[in-house]
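A reminder before we start the practical. When you read a complex entry, don't treat the lines as separate problems. The point of joint prediction is that each chain is placed relative to the others, so the output describes one connected object in space. Small molecules and nucleic acid strands, if listed, are placed in the same frame. In the example below there are two entries. Take a minute to note the order of the lines before looking further.
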Amino acid sequence: MELVVKKFGGTSVGDLGRIKHVARLIHGYLTLNPQHKVVTVVSAMSGETDKLIQLARSCVENPAPREMDVLLATGEQVTIALLAMSLIELGVPARSLLAQQAKISTDRSYTQAQILDINVDTVRETLEKGQIPVVAGFQGVDEEGNVTTLGRGGSDITAVALAAALEARACYIYTDVPGVYSADPRICSRAKLLSRVCHEEMLEMASLGAKVLHPRSVYFAMRYKVPLVVMSTFSPGSGTWIVREEKLMEKPVVTGITYRLDDAKITIRKLPGGIEALSQVFGSLARADIFVDMITQTGLVEGRTNISFTVPDELSSRALEVTQNCVPELGAEGASLERDIAKVSVVGLGMRYHAGVAARMFEALAKEKIDVQMIGTSEIKISVIVPRKYCEVAVRSLHDAFMEMKPEVNEEQYPPAT
Amino acid sequence: MELVVKKFGGTSVGDLGRIKHVARLIHGYLTLNPQHKVVTVVSAMSGETDKLIQLARSCVENPAPREMDVLLATGEQVTIALLAMSLIELGVPARSLLAQQAKISTDRSYTQAQILDINVDTVRETLEKGQIPVVAGFQGVDEEGNVTTLGRGGSDITAVALAAALEARACYIYTDVPGVYSADPRICSRAKLLSRVCHEEMLEMASLGAKVLHPRSVYFAMRYKVPLVVMSTFSPGSGTWIVREEKLMEKPVVTGITYRLDDAKITIRKLPGGIEALSQVFGSLARADIFVDMITQTGLVEGRTNISFTVPDELSSRALEVTQNCVPELGAEGASLERDIAKVSVVGLGMRYHAGVAARMFEALAKEKIDVQMIGTSEIKISVIVPRKYCEVAVRSLHDAFMEMKPEVNEEQYPPAT
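Here is the predicted structure of the whole assembly.
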C-alpha cells in the first residue's frame, strides 16, 4: 500500500469554492493513482483563527489558555466537516476526524502544545474501510482529554507527525505558491523554483523567512525522515521535494537567498569587557522571555566593547527597556535600538565543501555599496544584517552572484520518485 | 450540596455583551447562594446553527449527516469557551466541557440523536475542584466516539438530562421571555405570567405552540421528575416553575390558551366508508413520512364520508399529492388543501374534573361568529381549527371566557421553594 499524507493550508480551503476544488484534486489524484491511499489534514479557513483570537480578546482581556484552545479548535472542525461532505458528494467515501478521534496526544501547554504521540489505529481503520480520513490539523488532546492547539504552523506539524507515524511515503503540503524558490520571486525576478532541497537547507530557509513552511514542521520532518513536498493547490506542477541530504543528486553551493524583516537591532555602547556583563544582559533578556538571534561584539578598546544583538521586532521596545535597565549597573555608556534593518542570508549544503562563499558575498554587497552591520554563520548559511532599504538590492545581487555557480555532484545518485 | 443546572439559550448568549451578562448573572447567583453548586449548559449564539446549516448547504446539495453534526457542534463549542473565559475573568473558576468530555452518550441518529446515558463523573469532579462546568448543549457522542447532535430544542434536552443524571434540585431554562403566559402576550394583552404549571400542561402547551420550551425537553423533565424553571436572562423575575402535578396548590380548569399557525388541512370528499379506505390513505401518508395531527370524519351519506386531517404546513403540498394519488383507486370524488387555518387550544389540568369546558369554548367562539372546522380533545386540552384570520380574536375571546374561572384546589398543599 502506497500511503501519502496531503495537507491543505488555510488559503487552500479559504472558501467553499476552494474546499470543493481540494475535493476534486483528491478525487483526481485517486483516479490517477488507484493503488494509493490518501490521508488528508486541513487547516482552518484562512483568517478564521485570527478571527477567533479577536473574538476572545474582544470578550475578555486575558483569555484563559485552556478555553482559547477550545475556541480555536472549532476552526479546523468546520473545514474537516466541509471537506468530508464535499468528498462524499463526489462519491469518494470520507470521514472527518477530530484530534481526539485521530488520537493525537500532546502535552498540556495550551496554545503551543507539542505532539507526544499519535495512535494511528483509527486512521488505519478508516483507510481499511475504504474511507479517506480528513484529519483536523493544529489540534490535539492532552492525557486528561482537554483540547489543545499546536500554535502557528500547527497544521503542518500535524501532517508531518501523521506521515511519520503512518510511515507514509511522502507528506504533501499544498499551499498558494508552486514550491520553494531560490529567492522571493516578488523581489527577485530571476528566482528559480527549486525541484529538490534537503531538510537542513529548508530548515535554515524556513527560519530565515521563506514562509512556505514553518521551521517546526521541517524539523519534525528531518527528525523522522519524512519526505516533504510543497506544491500549489491552484496551479499544476511538481512542486519542491524536501528530502534527506543523501537523496540529493547535486549539492549546490548556494541553494537559496532569503531575507527577513522581522528583526530589530539593539546596541550597547562601551560595555565593560568580561563575561559577567554579557551574562547579566542576556540573563535579563531571557528572564523577560525575549529571544535573541544574532550577537556580535567589537574588539576591546580601553577595556570596553560595543555589543549588538537582534531580537524580534515586536518585542524590541521591551527588549530595549530591559537592556537600558542593565546599563547603569554595568557602567555602560548607553543602549540604543535600530529597527530599520533586514537580515539577508545565503543557504546551501555545498557551502560545507566550498571555500570563499563569505568573500564572494561581501564582494557582491560591496559592489552595491551596501554596508554590512552584523555577520552570523552556521555550517550551511551566512547571514548579514543590512539597512532595510537595501534588502531587495542585496537579495538580487546575491542571487546573481551565487546562482550560476556549479553544484557539487552527489556520488550516490538517487533520484527520488515523483 | 444544593445543585442546580442553568441553561442559557441562543438569544441569551447572542453576542459578547450577552455572554458577559450571563457570566455576571451566574456570579451574582453564587454570591447570593454560596452553598449552591451550579452546572451551566449553553446553546450556540442565536442564528449560528442556521448559519452553519446554510454553509453546508451552499457547499454540497445533501450534506452527509455525520459531517453535518461535526460542523454544527462547533456552534456550542464557541459559546462554552467564551462563557468559561468570561467567568474566569470575573474570578469564578470555570471549565468548558464538550459532549465527549461531559460523557453525554447518544445513539447514532446523526442530526437527531437521542441521549442514552450521561456519566456525570467529569462534571462532578469539576464541581469538586470548585469549578463551574460549562457544558455544550445540543451535542453528544455515540459509542464509537462520533459527534452527534440532538436536533431542535437539543440544548434544553441536554440541560434536563444533566439535571436528571445529577439529581439536581431544579433545571433553570434562561430565555428571552419572563416565563410561560396564559396566552401569547403579543396578541392577548390580558395574558398573565403563570407562576406554576405542571409538566403535563406544559407538554400540551409546548406541543401546541408555546415556543418557550421544546416538547421533547418537557417530556424528559416529566419522565425524570425534574422541576423546570423558565425565566428571563435579561429582566429579573421569578419565572414559571414547571413541576409535578401533585406539587401544584391549585389546578386551574384552564391554564392557558395556545395557538399554532403551522398546520394545513386536507379534505377528501365523498370517500367510500369503511376502514380499508382510511387505512390506505393514512398508510400512504405514513410511508411518505408525513405526520398527521387531527383527523375528523363526517357521518356516512349514501355510503360515503368527507374526511379532513391536518398536516405540517411545510409538508402540505406533498401530502396533497400523496392523497390525490389515492383518490382514483378509492373512488373518492377528490381531495383539496386549505392552508389558511389556525389551531387554537385551551389547556388545563382542572378540565379533568370540570364538565362544560367544550360548551363554554363554543359559546365564546359563537359570540364572535367564528366557525369551527375541526375539533380534537385530550384529557387536558381541547383544540379547534378555525380560519387563520380569526386566530387572534379566538385566543382573546377564549382567554376572557376561561381565565376568570375559579381553580380547583389541591388538597395536598405543597408550595415548591423558589
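Discuss with your neighbour: The first strand of chain B starts at residue 2 and ends at 8. What might explain this?
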